[in-house]
Design brief:
heterotrimer, A alpha+beta (263), B alpha+beta (786), C alpha+beta (161), A: 263 residues, alpha+beta, Uridine Diphospho-n-acetylenolpyruvylglucosamine Reductase, domain 3, Enolase-like, domain 1, 4-stranded antiparallel beta sheet, 10 helices, 30% helix, B: 786 residues, Aldehyde Oxidoreductase, domain 4, Aldehyde Oxidoreductase, domain 3, 4 domains, 7-stranded mixed beta sheet, 30 strands, 23% strand
């Protein structure tokens, strides 16, 4: 790692101030950032830890029944505290990485990083979540802007993520066997006003909504509704773990299984 | 009844206490006062010509002690290869230089170009970034078949081509082989790849070099399976140092699997640099660095043809293999595709005519050398896949076809240079059929199918040649080393025993199993015997641990030394008991005179040896003996494995539902440890079959360069295993009757897994002949839909 | 350099570290607690697992300064007060749950964290929980068996000795 200063503010305001320094970078749980630093692929002058800011911690139920999850809440906490409120989200959080990673990694860190194979972006996009930062709210549909790219400005941090609760939801993850990230992950949520299908792991553009599947399932919410749908392999990721065609195929299978799990 | 101590007992491992409490002493735990740290600047391209290296800026960076480049090693030898293979025309293999730091060219991603020694590792890394390199990129030589063509880019400009050797074993008359195939009732042919693997012991490699000016002595602490081999190679061939001034210590070593046999450039560098910098120098490999600097394993591309007569007897076998050696010859790399591979092509079968052809290729990849099994998994995989395919083509039961062709008479001279001393392949198969409940398979398949899954059963047989090896034979075959081993049994005055052994334990449990043998021979408690290993200043000259040889070779030396000790102790006992030496018996730690009640205890005799007041004049005081043991033949562990898989027809995902191993290891010292060795081998074999793939792109970039892309088997990828080693035909030529068990699981399991997958797919109506390893979901799905 | 203080295995410790000093480096190099091992640089092998405030974390993937004020437990603090092996350690020895020993500290620490939250895990729960702990020697058979035994389950029917 290159040398850097370490700051650990206890309020959002102090964190934002600290991040104003040139080449300062926010540190969530560090489960992706620290390996990146070890490879000297990033050279922040200051790391600003978000782990001691009480207002960014924990899971709350809002008046409208939606969940407000602090940006610095660990995967383990989300898994434990949403189990009886939003089981699909809990299931997703409970299968990110491994137990030790889940005790450090945070929802805000994952969303801000927007790894094309990460799970949380699928949950946020599939749920139609709202990402609250230190200065604004961004809908998930606007937040994810391609592989490792988000709407966040420099120095902007995710303080809270709002999840509306669907009638039914399921996350189906097919593992990349080495990293255990998603080779393909499909988060499907059924709301009163429609179905949302978000796909991670598969596309070179990062997480995306499979709108054809949503339309088909809005007409008829059963696995067979997907039968004639095909994803174009062209924009899929092809690598040593799976070809473009295979990922395209898996998107269909995982979506079908998510529907089955919701019925 | 299982025994509770001595030979045959599952004694708990004494070494576990330190490992379980964090008190192990691994090389990276060793810090020498005043040490500096080295960081190697490694090539990020596969092939290039070095035009210039400017280290001036780096030399002025904070904390930098010294910057080394290839120039600093011009007067020093390169990394040696320990086995000269002679090609089929009688010419020696092409043997290019393997410098410590690149000279002239870089030849693989990870090839070390420069080394920065600094006060801290981060300072060394900072300075390495300031080295100015001018390297002209050259086309990467990646595809072995293309590399063998005239006109291919050369990995080594001074060689005539990229072929290290074109080797043959078995029938040399091509016309005779052609005739066998022409007359065959059936010929089965298979093209297959044995995937390149990375051994990945959990402990990355580490080296700490130390030099003392006052006495001109060097110490190298290193993660090695064989400290004396490292000392010999480094002193005699690389640095030109006198062996008596160099101590090599391999303390607790966190797994080896072959990849810690070899002498590596980093070891020689740290030793050299310790003197050049007049400071201890430490190198700790990161995992990412390990992927591009540890020798890789396997990487064969083969075509195998099996000829059968009208009665389904095997009548001929021919293989053509391209074996990837990587950019340089690693220590034992040349022996792996040849004498450790071709000699095993007979397998468990009495095929009369066999011809093995191997072209070993230089490519712009990390050097390839022995990995658990070393050549034998590659042989077994080809053979057992083609046998399985033949059974499917002929519509016969794969077990029956194997049984029909088993060798049943021993000793058996194979057409590929080995003599199997003993075995009982039908008996071992009987054990497998019972242990795996093969009779119940149809019901299990029906149940899987009811759940929408395809279920397959894969059978595999293997034989391996272990306990390497008779030195005179391997010498004739090109080995530049003897392959004996050594043990010193030092009996202390009060009767406890220190046994100094040339074998090295890095997980095999020697510290527990070896004392079981010595204690059993004398009749004392195991706790009275301690094993000393891993330090050239403490142990006799031994060749170390690999090839499932520790007990068969070093254990035999230990038995011989213990026999000498007992023989001498009997002389002392006879004197004390005033009896004839011939009448002295040793049992349960008591020397007694046959037919009388006169006896003297072990401890009294040992005390007398060191306090020789009442002592036979013709006997030297003391009680310490050394024996070197050179085996008369290889040992031949053999077994039969069964794997049951389920395949998800929608995704191609394969899961291991059951895995059963029936092995014949001859006699067994510690069944618990033997089971553990088999478990570990199976885990690695399933890893090779389903998960692991060291892949390069066409430009020579390593695609699987970390655990993020190289799929290591995890606990939830694997089942509980059934292991049966009750089939026992003791080795006929070593004193313990043992054969070795360390590699069996890794050899026997990959074909069983792939055979099971193919069986599953065919049971689901998919006429799939073969899928290359790793049999990933993506590949299975592609095969099902092609 | 910044001062960091924490409790490690019940003892208060402190030291001067850089921002980039990892918790694993602080334990190994500053405190000479070399039982915590480093087997990879991508947070996957789990040889470095320790407990921070009672939770399993990968110490090579956490800055030492993030553990300021924390209660840290390492393999060196796992044995009983009299130095004898604790229940999990003893089960690993009894069931041959280790070979080279390099992954073992992380395995024991993960097993302890698992049994704290799930005192009687099934085979598949154990295998799933060990997702972040690689072992290259044992094929996991005896590790899973040892953890089942440590949780008081009868493992006599599980294959092999």
């Amino acid at each position: 790692m290159y040398s850097f200063e370490f700051e650990k503010p206890s309020t959002i305001a102090d964190a934002v101030a600290a991040l104003g320094a040139e080449d300062a970078q926010a540190l969530g749980g560090g489960q992706t950032l620290i390996p990146t630093l070890k490879q000297r692929l990033a050279a922040p002058t200051t790391l600003v830890s978000l782990s001691s800011i009480p207002e960014m911690q924990g899971v709350c139920v809002e008046d409208d029944g939606s969940l407000a999850i602090g940006g610095a809440t660990t995967h383990a906490t989300v898994a434990a505290e949403t189990a009886d409120k939003y089981a699909a989200l809990s299931d997703l959080a409970g299968h990110i990485g491994d137990p030790a990673v889940r005790n450090r990694g945070t929802i805000g860190g994952s969303l801000a990083n927007n790894d094309p194979a990460a799970c949380y972006p699928a949950a946020a996009l599939g749920s139609g979540a709202t990402i609250i930062t230190n200065n604004r709210s961004v809908s998930a549909d606007d937040f994810f802007q391609g592989m490792f790219t988000t709407a966040l400005d420099e120095g902007e941090i995710i303080t809270t993520v709002h999840f509306p609760i669907p009638q039914a939801a399921s996350y189906q993850k097919f593992l990349q066997p080495a990293s255990r990230f998603a080779l393909v992950g499909v988060f499907l949520a059924r709301f009163a006003d429609g179905v949302r299908v978000a796909v991670t792991g598969a596309s070179e553009d990062g997480v995306f909504r499979w709108s054809e599947a949503e339309e088909a399932l809005n007409k008829e919410f059963r696995p067979d509704a997907l039968m004639d749908l095909k994803i174009n392999p062209m924009n899929m990721i092809g690598d040593l773990h799976g070809s473009k065609e295979y990922r395209a195929h898996l998107v269909g299978v995982m979506t079908k299984r998510a529907v089955e799990a919701c019925i | 009844m299982p025994k509770d101590s001595g030979i045959g007992a599952s004694s708990k491992r004494r070494e576990d206490v330190r490992f379980l409490t964090g008190a192990g002493n691994y090389t990276d735990d060793i810090n020498v006062h005043g040490q500096a740290y080295v960081h190697f600047l490694r090539s990020d391209i596969a092939h290039g010509r070095i035009k210039s290296i400017d280290t001036s800026a780096a030399e002025g960076m904070p904390g930098v002690v010294k910057v080394f480049t290839g120039k600093d090693f011009e007067g020093v030898g390169g990394m040696p290869c320990g086995w000269e293979v002679t090609d089929k025309h009688g010419a020696p293999m092409q043997e290019p230089p393997h410098p410590i730091l690149a000279q002239g060219k870089v030849r693989h991603v990870g090839d070390p170009i420069a080394a920065v020694v600094a006060d801290s590792l981060e300072q060394a890394r900072d300075a390495a970034e300031a080295i100015d390199l001018d390297i002209e990129e050259l086309p990467a030589v990646m595809n072995m078949k293309a590399a063998a063509q005239d006109g291919s880019t050369l990995v080594h400009d001074d060689l005539k081509n990229n072929i290290c050797y074109d080797w043959q074993l078995g029938e040399t008359d091509d016309a005779k082989v052609d005739e066998v195939f022409a007359n065959a009732a059936h010929v089965t042919t298979l093209d297959l790849v044995n995937n390149r693997l990375v051994a990945n012991p959990m402990e990355p490699r580490v080296a700490v070099g130390e030099y003392k000016r006052g006495t001109d002595e060097y110490t190298l602490f290193t993660t090695s399976q064989n400290p004396h081999v490292i000392r010999l190679l480094m002193c005699a061939f690389v640095l030109g140092l006198p062996e008596h001034k160099v101590r090599v210590v391999a303390p607790d070593v966190g797994g080896g699997f072959g990849t810690k046999i070899f002498h590596y450039a980093e070891e020689a560098f740290c030793t050299f640099a310790a003197k050049a910098c007049n400071r201890p120098v430490k190198w700790t490999s990161s995992r990412s660095e390990a992927f591009m600097s540890d020798a890789h394993g396997r990487d064969h591309v083969s075509k195998i043809e099996l000829a059968l007569d009208a009665d389904n007897n095997f009548i001929g076998l021919r293989t053509n293999t391209y074996a990837n050696l990587g950019a340089y010859l690693s220590t034992f790399s040349s022996s792996v595709p040849t004498w450790l591979h071709g000699t095993l092509m007979a397998g468990n079968y009495k095929t009369p005519v066999i011809q093995v052809n191997v072209k070993a290729m230089f490519t712009n990849t990390v050097p390839v050398d022995a990995y658990r099994g070393a050549g034998r998994p590659e042989a077994t995989y080809q053979l057992e896949r083609v046998v399985d395919k033949a059974a499917r083509e002929l519509g016969v039961d794969p077990i029956a076809l194997r049984r029909q062709n088993f060798v049943t008479q021993f000793p058996y001279d194979t057409p590929v240079a080995l003599t199997y001393d003993t075995g009982d392949y039908n008996g071992t198969m009987d054990k497998l059929e019972a242990a795996a409940d093969l009779a119940g398979f149809a019901a299990r398949r029906a149940k899987s199918e009811a759940n929408g899954k395809l279920r397959g059963l894969g059978i595999n047989c293997y034989i391996e040649a272990c306990g390497i090896a008779p030195s005179n034979i391997v010498g004739m075959l090109g080995a530049r080393a003897g392959l004996y081993d050594a043990a010193t049994v030092r009996v202390n005055a009060t009767g406890s025993i220190s046994v100094m052994v040339g074998a090295h334990s890095h997980g095999q449990g020697h510290e527990t199993a070896f004392p079981q043998v010595v204690a059993d021979m004398i009749g004392i408690d195991e706790s009275m015997v301690e094993i000393v290993h891993g330090d050239t200043s403490k142990i006799p000259f031994g060749m170390g641990t690999y090839g499932s040889r520790s007990l068969a070779v070093c254990g035999s030396a230990m038995v011989k030394a213990t026999e000498k000790v007992i023989e001498k102790a009997k002389k002392i006992a006879a004197h004390l008991l005033e009896a004839s030496e011939a009448d002295i018996e040793l049992k349960d730690g008591q020397f007694s005179v046959a037919g009388t009640d006169k006896s003297v205890a072990w401890g009294d005799v040992t005390l007398t040896a060191y306090v020789p007041h009442n002592y036979p004049l013709e006997v030297e005081p003391g009680l310490e003996e050394t024996a070197f043991y050179d085996p008369a033949n290889f040992t031949f562990p053999a077994g039969a494995y069964a794997c049951e898989v389920e395949v998800d027809p929608e995704t191609g995902q394969v899961t291991i539902e059951a895995f059963t191993a029936a092995d014949d290891f001859g006699n067994i010292i510690n069944p618990m440890i033997v089971d553990g060795q088999v478990h570990g081998g199976i885990g690695q074999g399933i890893g090779q079959a389903l998960l692991e793939n060291c892949a390069y792109d066409e430009n020579g970039q390593l695609l699987s360069a970390s655990f993020m892309d190289y799929a290591m088997p995890r606990a939830d990828d694997l089942p509980f295993y059934e292991v049966d080693h009750s089939s026992q035909t003791p080795c006929t030529h070593n004193p313990l009757g043992v054969k070795g068990c360390g590699e069996a699981g890794a050899i026997g399991s990959p074909p069983a897994v792939v055979n099971a997958v193919i069986d599953a797919l065919n049971s689901g109506g998919k006429a799939v002949d073969h899928i290359d390893m790793p049999v990933s979901p993506s590949r299975v799905w592609a095969a099902m839909n092609s | 350099m910044t001062q960091v203080s924490m409790t490690v295995n019940g003892k208060s410790v402190s030291g001067d570290v850089e921002g980039r000093t990892l918790l694993s480096s602080f334990l190994r190099e500053h405190l000479s607690l070399t039982g915590t091992h480093v087997g990879c640089d991508t947070a996957q092998c789990g040889a470095c697992v320790v407990h921070v405030n009672g939770e399993a974390v990968k110490s090579c993937n956490m800055l030492a300064l993030e553990a300021n004020g924390a209660d840290v437990g390492t393999i060196e603090g796992q044995a009983n007060a009299d130095g004898s092996l604790n229940v999990i350690q003893q089960a690993f020895q009894d069931h041959h749950g280790l070979q080279c020993g390099f992954c073992t500290p992380g395995m024991v620490m993960s097993a302890a964290a698992l049994l704290k939250e799930n005192p009687r895990p099934t085979e598949s729960e154990i295998r799933k929980y060990l997702e972040g702990n690689l072992c290259r020697c044992t094929g996991y058979h005896n590790i899973v068996k040892a953890i089942m035994a440590a949780s008081g389950q009868d493992v006599s029917s599980i294959a092999a000795e």
